[in-house]
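Sync notes, pocket subgroup
Present: LS, DG
LS reminded everyone that the earlier model was apo-only. Rerun requested with flavin-adenine dinucleotide included. Inputs:
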Amino acid sequence: MNTDCLENEIAIAGAGIAAAAVAIQLLRDGFRPVLIDRGLPSSKGIEAISESALRLFAALDLLPALEQAGGVWVAGFENAWQSHEPILRSGRYLHVDRTALLQATIATAIDRGAVLTACHTLPAIRIAGDRAYVTIDRVERPFAAAIDATGRSAIWSRSIRWQQQEIAEIYDAIGDPNCLRGRIARIADGWVYRLGLPDRMTVGVVRSQRLRGQIDNALVNASLDLPNHTQLRFLGRRPAVPQWAAAPIQDCRIAVGDAALASNPIAGQGIRFALSSALAAAAVVRTWRDSPANRAGATEFYNELVATERQQHLASIDALYFNEPVSTTNHQLSQPILDRTNLPATVCFTGQIKTMNLYIDGLIQPSAALILADGKAVRWLGNFDLLTLQEFGREPIVTAIAIEHLRSTSMSQESALSLIQWCLEHQIFASIPAPQSTL
Ligand SMILES: Cc1cc2nc3c(=O)[nH]c(=O)nc-3n(C[C@H](O)[C@H](O)[C@H](O)COP(=O)(O)OP(=O)(O)OC[C@H]3O[C@@H](n4cnc5c(N)ncnc54)[C@H](O)[C@@H]3O)c2cc1C
């Protein structure tokens, strides 16, 4: 038997965006991905891609595919969830037709060397030892790993769990230059959204599955601030419930994208998670091959990654639907404090460090990370390695000197101030009270 083949062929079920992304990264790592797909048309509609997801497109060298798909930049997003006066969320969003995006990303994966095999029914996988066996063209073939990228079908990753009972009805309408920007609004029995491209827009009506039936076109138009005469043309339905695989990784089978965790569309995280889980899954497969001693660690890393995403998603959905306070999920610097007088005069490094499995240079490796007050582990803030803060030692340091020290690593004054504030918030630094003057 050809051992090179055994080591490097990866079976991927599905040919959506997660399948394309995982195939592209696996090709870079020297694997040979084989995509197996039914070739059915995908659900139609316009998608909004946030800037955080765009970084992942860039990491996969997929920005040309976005351009090919005809993506259009739109500034901001209108959130009318709580009132008719929307809050304008800042940031840029790329609006793109999802079918065009899918075609462009899959074409890129094939151009780069992925093989696409059509099937009427997805073959079952048989796992034996650390190999997956899949029958293609009546021949059972061994694969070093099997990736389930079949979206919400999660064919290779049953059983699945879900929460809520909502469904989205998707409509198409003629574009309007004043309605390019995305908007969400609450209606009595659910919520609605719009996303625009210059020539057309997508409108989604999300309601409980029990409430299927005629929508109130005038109410939708008013909630989404569409011109009165806007006619909605029904495109189809899609599930809107959060759904997840009970075991996103097992033996040598990994679920990515919606097959691992499909979110409520209000989060706008589907594309970002499809790409980030694809990159993580490719790193796990590479670790299994190149660093077999850490096989179990890589598996654990992936399980935790999906579990953390799921917990954060469900918490943020609960907070939104039941108006509960939402905890910050991403580790980002808060708004910069431009004045150092807001900071204590002296700080002290109090961070706790633990060895964990981390994603480093495309591999899952045991490495040190800082443990935050809420128990979460973090190593990098943007490109800044937080472990370098240990250089401050455990002795109190004058904040101005700490700022100069950070600036010597070519960090701007503004970023250094924000970093120190973030460290104080997360108890990586403690503020040292100024000494009491004795009379
Ligand atoms: C209308 C719509 C609007 C959306 N808008 C946004 C948005 O604005 N922003 C955002 O971030 N996300 C959005 N999403 C979600 C986002 O599109 C998904 O999270 C993302 O596409 C998931 O990618 P995936 O590759 O995991 O799954 P999919 O794109 O669903 O791909 C699954 C693949 O598996 C194949 N497959 C399925 N079943 C089988 C089977 N039995 N046998 C063989 N192959 C099979 C399918 O043919 C397909 O190729 C939207 C989704 C929809 C439907």
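DG: Residues 13-19, 37-38, 40, 42-43, 45, 47-48, 98, 122, 149-151, 153, 155, 170, 238, 257-259, 265, 268-272, 274 surround flavin-adenine dinucleotide (CB under 6 Å).
LS: Residues 325-338 have pLDDT under 50 and may be disordered.
Action: DG to write up.
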